[in-house]
Amino acid sequence: MIKKLFIIICSLMFFIISCSGGNDSDKILVGVAMPTQSSERWINDAANMKANLEKLGYAVDIQFAEDDVQTQVSQIENFIAKGVKCLVVASVDSQALVNVLDQAKNNGIPVIAYDRLLMDTDSVSYYATFDNKGVGTKIAEYIVKAKNLETAKQENRSYTVEFFMGSPDDNNALFLYNGIMEVLQPYLDNGVLVCKTGRTSFQDTCILRWSQETAQQWAENYLSGYYNNQKLDIACSAFDGFAYGIRSALEASGYKVGEDWPLISGQDAELMAIKNIISGHQTMTIFKDTRILAEKCAAMVDAVLKGGEPEINDTTQYNNNVKVVPTYLCEPIAIDKNNYQSIIVDSGYYTEEQLQVN
């Protein structure tokens, strides 16, 4: 309920900001397609993109698709009809956008993928994102260190673990999963990590549209079906929203913080996630400073529209099945109760007042 209220307030603030400002009729128009306002993260991304592009002198039209593929297709078609000069797209399902992105290319409109790679098209020019495999690597490395997995075998220790991975239509989710498994698979192989459901493949652990409700349902089913006589030690979650659902399932099953609460990971450093870390209901999250991502993406737009070359630091990883998309990767950071103050608060991402735990 608190999360939903926060999102509603953010959405209203974003609407007010969007409606303010002077006459943009003489400015170059940039269209920004975002997936949803149901996640705090995308609201912040939109606000940051708008601020950065307007600072560079552009008019900005931002649309949210609310995770509906056809809505996003229609929004991009409307952008093209309006005559936008550049498109920034954080896709709902990129494979469904191939035709409309071809329309953009045929109209001479460059397309920049924002934090979700646009697959199966040559109509995307550049990609701005975080090191998605690195996100998975950092989650897994945190688990290894927190549970001292390197010495667990010789000390005859083992831990139960279940996996909650991202949406199968989001290419980032597979990168993240691969980063996790590259680190944790050896511990699954030698029995230090035990997945009682046996669900460890990406196909078995991916959650469509990053649904918190699905993650909660899975956790409830796992706890009732496999963990009646043994506790769950680690919930390897790829998203803060999953962690909220897992928390609800654990509380309903009688788990208590400070007694038998498992290690729960996450991603995005949402406000609620940091509060949960402070209270002990979530162990860690991955901080992806969307202020930096938006700044880098806006600079890409500016360079493209001025006929220049944007800053790129990866030209090998992101093959969308048609081309390797030139990419700028921002660095993710693992956050827990020991460093949230110095990284989250001291940088101004959240204030102490925002992080007060009720």
From TrEMBL:
The keyword Signal applies. SUPFAM superfamilies: Periplasmic binding protein-like I. It is found in: Cell envelope. The keyword Metal-binding does not apply. Keywords: Signal. It comes from the Bacteria. Residues 1-22 form the signal peptide. It holds the Pfam family Peripla_BP_4. InterPro entries: Bact_Solute-Bind_Prot2, ChvE-like, Peripla_BP_I, SBP_2_dom. Its main location: other. Belongs to the bacterial solute-binding protein 2 family. NCBIfam families: ChvE (NF040907). This is Sugar ABC transporter substrate-binding protein. The gene is chvE.
